[in-house]
Amino acid sequence: MPVLVITGTGTEVGKTVATAAVAATARAAGRSVAVLKAAQTGVGPDEPGDAQEVARLAGAVTAAEVARYPEPLAPGTAARRAGRAPVHPEEVAEAAAKLATDHDLVLVEGAGGLLVRFDAAGGTLADAAELLGAPVLVVASAGLGTLNTTELTARELRSRGLGLSGVVIGSWPQHPDLASRCNLADLPDVAGAPLLGALPAGAGALAPPAFRSSAPHWLAPALDGTWDVEAFRKREAP
Questions:
Q1: Of 27, 37, 68, 117, which residue is the catalytic one?
Q2: How many beta carbons lie within 10 A of that of residue 214, not counting itself?
Q3: Strands across the sheet containing 33-37
Q4: pLDDT tens digits for 109-161?
Q5: Which of 36, 43, 92, 166 is geometrically suited to a Cys-Cys bond with 196, CB 3.0 to 4.6 A?
Q6: How far is CA 128 from CA 40, 89, 108, 136, in A?
Q7: Residues of the binding site
Q8: HSE on the CB side for 185, CA within 13 Å?
Q9: 37 catalytic residue (yes or no)
């Protein structure tokens, strides 16, 4: 099944922009793409959510959501406070499988980190990935603190027998500090998986045509891009 689950190590790590970059790069390689937001929180009924933002940046991408809730909270909490039915992992898996029948690639974007709860039973994005048998791409921050959250995420994936495709740095600073530079070597070590890209800070603010033409240069060949991790390390390492 052509599904890739995309999670962050937490909130505000650049997950949606990274998802857009993966989508744009796949489209540039000639693949049809759908993006599924498992649970959209913090937006009103008529406001664009993360899936729509991916489509805006990446182009002709099918954008879909399983559910959305108005308050910017964990999905389970947001559903409870809104008095609405929660999202269950089975629903996420079913929606992704349906999209996979007529798309070359389906990107399932989570909300926050891997174990953010969808429902009162403790269902998570990890459970949806298990049901799908899909690999997971982890989007991490660049600087101090990222090694711990990345390793915890990778350990959870391994404990469940889930495949970790690799790690993408969601926002690489224009002037990286020492910790960020050192993390270029340490992130793949703690994750036990390759570093597959680094998006420049502010990438999401680019005009869509510029974003689409640039995205393949931010991602490694494993994600259909041209980014050279060794050349990047050599240029940026301390």
A1: 37
A2: 16
A3: 62-65, 33-37, 105-113, 3-8, 136-140, 164-172, 195-200
A4: 999 899 999 999 999 999 999 999 999 999 999 999 999 999 999 999 999 99
A5: 166
A6: 16, 5, 9, 11
A7: 12-17, 41, 50, 109-112, 170-171
A8: 10
A9: yes
